[in-house]
Specification:
Elements: E1 4-7, H1 19-34, E2 42-45, H2 47-55, H3 64-79, E3 82-83, E4 89-90, E5 92-98, E6 108-112, H4 118-126, H5 129-150, H6 162-177, H7 187-205, H8 213-227, H9 231-240, E7 248-254, E8 265-270, E9 282-287, H10 292-295, E10 302-303, H11 319-322, H12 324-341, E11 345-352, E12 355-363, H13 368-381, H14 386-391, H15 395-402, E13 404-406, H16 408-412, E14 416-419, E15 421-424, E16 427-433, H17 436-444, E17 449-453, H18 461-466, E18 469-472, H19 480-488, E19 491-494, E20 500-502, E21 507-510, E22 513-516, E23 520-524, E24 529-532, E25 537-539, H20 544-556, E26 560-564, H21 568-576, E27 582-586, H22 597-607, H23 612-636, E28 641-645, H24 659-668, H25 673-683, H26 695-700, H27 702-721, E29 727-732, H28 738-759, E30 767-772, H29 775-779, H30 781-787, E31 790-793, H31 795-803, H32 814-819, H33 836-850, E32 855-858, H34 866-875, E33 879-882, H35 887-898
Parallel strand pairs: 3-4, 16-17, 17-18, 18-19, 26-27, 26-33, 27-28, 28-29, 29-30, 30-31, 31-32, 32-33
Antiparallel strand pairs: 1-2, 2-7, 5-6, 5-7, 8-9, 8-11, 9-10, 11-12, 13-25, 14-24, 15-19, 16-23, 20-21, 21-22, 23-24
Helix pairs in contact: 4-5, 5-6, 5-7, 5-8, 6-7, 15-35, 20-35, 22-23, 23-27, 24-25, 27-28, 28-30, 30-33, 34-35
The structure holds adenosine-5'-diphosphate and magnesium ion (2 copies).
Length: about 900
């Protein structure tokens, strides 16, 4: 197998289409090289090699070393430098790069090849001793951390890790000698520091920092492979549902140096503003620095140009001002890359002694608002067509656009704590915590937390995920954590320099004010403002551009999108979001909640009735309430289909619990309270979810179904008389046998005919159908379809019964299933296509065989999950139904599925 693909000005083997094999970074480096951009030459070791490396239990495939040496020789002949040569040494970086970008989650090692024999040569060649020792100390820091400690899985004795140890040594040196910046450290001090680093490494890790370039190279390559299974990378994959078997590529690339003095620099830029989507070149850079300094957020970076100036960096010179010619070259590259990729790019560059080099480009992460604005702009500019535009907005992040912002009125009078950079959108409030672990813990006990950190660190990934918002004292808009937050649409403010964090006391000082762990802050991530206390939130206002976008998306959609609405209020919200009907109206919901005292009382009376007569009497009292609720909903949904489900939950759920309520029922039924206890007890079941519920209630007590169906038809009749057009769909839940459907259908037909007579009308259009939520029903869908005019897949119960997982109890073990990669995601969130999906497609096929025009939809939570929506489209369903706030997500996902 060929493992290595070269790239560079002279020879490039891959291109942007080969992300699976070369990883995103490698594929795009190859593409940029093909575009004749100044890419330092190098080669990519494929993701396939990474997988083979793991198959061989962490050993390189036999042919790899030879291939590496050959590729290194090619770089040497292109650059005229030689790896390990004492006079003219070549240095390289070893960079990770998976198929889809995982910013900062894996490892990269720079300056590989520096050792006691090559150092003097490089000093002589560059005439810059400071630079060489700065590069050396970086190599030692990265290598000892990534290769010697993490890849070897050495657990630090002092709990701190070698990286922190070395960082502390460097900080102490800076403090002792009064150096403000890394660049102030003298050459002599750097030299001594490197020696002390090596000694510390020997002490703590029990091994010497390798002085052999080839050993460094091979060690780095193996460690980058291993970083695929590092803690942060694994966490990130779980969150993003990235498969474990993709593996990472390794890019070995000629080093270029941004730390060679005042004519050298490094930076990160976006071809458009990733926060707003504005068509402005946006970026940050640092003079005399290496790439990691910008992305790690350790120094406040300079603005790229006037468009990029903000409150934190406005005093610092921009690249446009400092190096106008190079800025212009970069600006031209920006235009070229956008025209080529037809999408916003995130780029990394380095300037070595006045020469520009391109080190990375990839499709840039962006906020939902930015994604929307850029897609619409590019459509209007004629860069992309409608279909492409529709696919540019990730349905998952749509949520954020519809999510709350800080109420501008509340903000006017709020007490400001600090100001930082608006790295992630929207508003959020929460209690402040200072470590990722605390954020995870507090969030577990249902607290809203804001994770406050000195700087953004990829190790904090789980804490960032758990927190409602992230706030940091240092770092810029292009730091890794800012990228991650933006990708998730998480409210995030970075670089709030006024914050002085004391981790030991878990306190935060701002001037003379002191805040403690647990204090509440509110963040406006769109403006970068931090406030004291909990401010009022507001739904994001109507977004005109969003509506225009969705109107275009709707043109391409094949499936209808309905909503699951239990109340008239839900139905109104869903209509605003573009719902085309109700896919699930749960009748029992009118009995929950505070306003339903009377109805609930009557329901209880019915449930605790003993004789048929008692029950009939109670049902008659209940009837007007049910009819009214259904009528209001049908009226709101005039002209649109409304699927009304007959009573579903086990009756015991409604049995009164308090003494007071029990006495009330006893009085109403003229029975003793002891009798109420007795009757309640009889309703107890050991497995209520697979007990006496759904259609089974209607079989035992046909009068209950009768009352509901009659309420539906009479509501319709009254609406029809008032000139409306109700479209009810009567749905029977929890069926497993076609005879159940036959049984209930008789009641339905009888009520229908009776209502026609009573109201003296000619027609009462309706559909009769069932939920498919028991595997047996799916498998005999051909028989079910003899009675059912529609199926609605209740994938919550269908998942529960297919897996045998109790929905209400999965909390105790689901994480173990995910952590051990037994399941790639929670099947209650994302439909299990393998088995549950197979039941759905089977039922679709068998149902259509009996009744070709049968209407098919889904009403489980999955109806609002983009991946599951795509599945529904492929399965040929007519509609999906989801909660009101998910309607836009489902509309977009359905449009993308059809493109
Ligand atoms: P990540 O995937 O975490 O962004 P990268 O592989 O891009 O990691 O490397 C981290 C930083 O190191 C980048 O900012 C990049 O600019 C710098 N870097 C990587 N390779 C080189 C190189 N050959 N020369 C100079 N800088 C480099
Ligand atoms: Mg990078
Ligand atoms: Mg159900």
């Amino acid at each position: 197998t060929k493992y290595i693909y070269e790239f560079g000005p002279d020879k490039t083997e891959g291109d942007a289409s080969q992300k699976n094999l070369l990883g995103g970074k490698g594929a795009n480096l190859a593409e940029m090289a093909k575009l004749k951009l100044p890419v330092p030459p190098g080669f990519t070791i494929s993701t396939e090699c990474c997988n083979h490396y793991f198959d061989l239990n962490g050993r390189f495939p036999d042919t790899l070393e030879e291939e590496i040496l050959k590729a290194m020789a090619n770089i040497e002949s292109h650059t005229g430098m030689i790896f390990g040569d004492p006079k003219n040494p070549l240095l390289v970086s070893c960079r990770s790069g998976a198929r889809s970008s995982m910013p900062g989650m894996m490892e990269t090692i720079l300056n590989v090849g520096l050792c006691t024999t090559t150092i003097p040569g490089l000093i002589k060649k560059t005439n810059n001793e400071w630079f060489v020792y700065d590069a050396y100390r970086r190599l030692i820091m990265m290598y000892s951390d990534v290769v010697m400690e993490k890849a070897e899985q050495i657990h630090p004795k002092d709990g701190m890790g070698i990286r922190l140890n070395l960082e502390m040594m460097m900080n102490n040196l800076k403090n002792d000698k009064g150096y403000d910046n890394d660049t102030d450290i003298s050459t002599e001090d750097l030299k001594a520091l490197c020696e002390r680093f090596k000694k510390k490494i020997r002490e703590n890790l029990g091994a010497d920092f390798p002085d052999d370039p080839k050993e460094q190279l091979m060690g780095s390559i193996g460690a980058v492979f291993k970083s695929w299974n590092g803690k942060r990378a694994v966490s990130y994959r779980r969150i993003e549902h990235i498969p474990d078997n993709w593996g990472t590529a390794v890019n070995v690339q000629t080093m270029v140096f941004g730390n060679m003095g005042d004519t050298s620099a490094t930076g990160v830029a976006f071809t458009r503003d990733p926060a707003t989507g504005d068509n402005k070149f946006y970026g940050e850079w640092l003079v005399n620095a290496q790439g990691e300094d910008v992305v790690a957020g350790t120094r406040t970076p300079n603005p790229l140009n006037t468009d990029t100036k903000n409150s934190q960096n406005k005093h610092l010179p921009s690249l446009e001002e400092s190096m106008p010619q190079l800025y212009k070259q970069l600006f031209d590259i920006r235009n070229l890359l956008e025209a080529h990729y037809k999408d916003m790019q995130d780029i990394e560059f380095t300037i070595q002694e006045g020469r520009l080099y391109m080190l990375q480009c990839r499709v840039g992460k962006r906020t939902a608002t930015a994604a929307l604005n850029m897609a619409m702009d590019m459509l209007e500019e004629g860069t992309i067509d409608e279909r492409t535009m529709v696919c540019r907005l990730d349905p998952k992040i749509l949520d954020d656009m519809l999510h709350p912002i800080v109420d501008p009125d509340a903000e006017k009078t709020a007490v400001k704590v600090a100001e930082g950079l608006p790295a992630g959108p929207g508003g959020a409030w929460g209690q402040i915590v200072f470590t990722a672990e605390d954020a995870v813990q507090w969030a577990k006990s249902d607290k809203n937390v804001i994770l406050v950190r000195e700087e953004t660190n990829p190790e904090d990934i789980e804490g960032m995920r758990a927190a409602a918002a992230v706030l940091t004292a240092r770092g810029g808009m292009t730091s890794h954590a800012a990228l991650v937050a933006r990708g998730w649409g998480k409210c995030c403010i970075v670089g709030a320099g006024a914050l002085k964090i004391n981790l030991a006391t878990k306190e935060l000082r701002v001037g003379t004010r002191v805040f403690k762990e647990g204090d509440i802050f509110t963040l406006n991530g769109t403006k970068g403002m931090v406030y004291q206390g909990q401010l009022k939130m507001k739904d994001a206002s109507e977004n005109v551009r969003f509506k225009a976008f969705m109107a275009i998306a709707d043109k391409y959609r094949a499936m209808q999108v309905r909503t699951n609405a239990d109340t008239p209020a839900d139905a109104m919200t869903a209509l605003d979001f573009g719902a085309q009907g109700i896919g699930l109206f749960r009748t029992e919901h009118m009995f929950y909640g505070a306003d339903s005292d009377k109805a609930l009382f009557l329901l209880r009376k019915m449930i605790l009735s003993k004789t048929h007569e008692e029950r009939e009497a109670a049902l008659e009292e209940l009837f007007p309430f049910v009819k009214e609720e259904i009528k209001t909903t049908l009226q709101i949904m005039d002209n649109l289909p409304v699927t009304i489900r007959l009573l579903d939950p086990p009756l015991h759920e409604f049995v009164p619990q308090s003494r007071e309520n029990q006495q009330e029922i006893a009085d109403a039924l003229h029975i003793d309270i002891e009798e109420v206890f007795k009757r309640s007890e009889q309703l107890l079941e050991s497995n209520p979810m697979i007990g006496h519920r759904g259609v089974r209630l209607g079989i035992t007590y046909p009068e209950i179904s009768h009352m509901q169906v009659k309420a539906i038809f009479e509501a319709c009749a009254e609406l029809i008389k008032a000139g409306k057009k109700p479209m009810p769909e009567i749905m029977v839940p929890v069926t497993c046998n076609e005879k159940e459907l036959a049984f209930v259908r008789d009641i339905v037909t009888q009520c229908h005919d009776q209502t026609l007579k009573t109201y003296e009308i000619d027609a009462l259009p309706y559909l009769y159908g069932t939920m498919i939520e028991i595997p047996r029903a799916a498998l005999i869908a051909d028989k079910m379809a003899e009675y059912a005019q529609f199926f609605s897949f209740g994938t919550n119960d269908l998942t529960q019964m297919t897996f045998g997982f109790s929905r209400d109890d999965i909390g105790s073990f689901m994480n173990d299933y995910i952590d051990n990669a037994i399941l790639s995601s929670d099947p209650f969130e994302t439909l299990d296509q393998e088995a549950v999906g197979c039941l759905v497609t089977t039922a679709v096929e068998r149902g259509r065989k009996t009744r070709p025009e049968i209407k098919l939809g889904i009403c489980g939570e999955h109806g609002g999950d983009p991946e599951s929506v795509v599945f529904c489209h492929k399965a040929g369903l007519n509609y999906v139904s989801c909660s009101p706030y998910r309607v836009p997500i489902a509309r977009l996902a359905a449009a993308q599925a059809a493109i």
